[in-house]
Amino acid sequence: MSRTDIEAVEEVNTAFYEAMERGDFDALSALWLDDEISCVHPGWPVLTGRGEVLRSYALIMSHTDYIQFFLTDTKVSVIADTAVVTCTENILSGGPAEEGQDLGPLVGQLVVATNVFRRTSEGWRLWSHHGSPVLTESDEDEDEASS
Known about the structure:
Elements: H1 3-22, H2 25-30, E1 38-40, E2 47-48, H3 50-62, E3 66-79, E4 82-94, E5 106-120, E6 123-133, H4 137-146
Parallel strand pairs: 1-6
Antiparallel strand pairs: 1-2, 3-4, 4-5, 5-6
C-alpha cells in the first residue's frame, strides 16, 4: 500500500461528495463502477445495480435545492485493489423553497458512511456506499418522551 493509493482514494471520495453538492449527475455517475454496485441511503432499503443506484441519486438531487457535506473522522484503508473509506457526513441541506423564498428550511444531519472503492484501469471507482443516521441526544430524548 502506497501513500499515493491513499491520496488517490481520498481524491475520488472527495469528488463523490463534491458532485453531490453541485448536483452534477454526470460527474457522480462517472465515479461508480459499471457492474454490480450497491447503495444504502439512511432509512432506505439496499439498492443494487447501476440503474437502481443512479436513479436514487437523480431522485435525491431533484428534490434537494442545497446540500453541503463536511466530512470528519475520515479513515482510508487500501488492500490490493480494494479501498474502504469510513467517515462522518455532517450534512446541511435544504429542500424546495416556499413561495417567495430563495431556499427551503435548512436541516442538519449526521450520517456515518462507508464507501468501498475498487481499482480499475480508469482509476478508483465506487463499488458501494452505505450511510447510517447517527442518533443525537435530542433524538433519543424525543424517543423516550414518546414511549
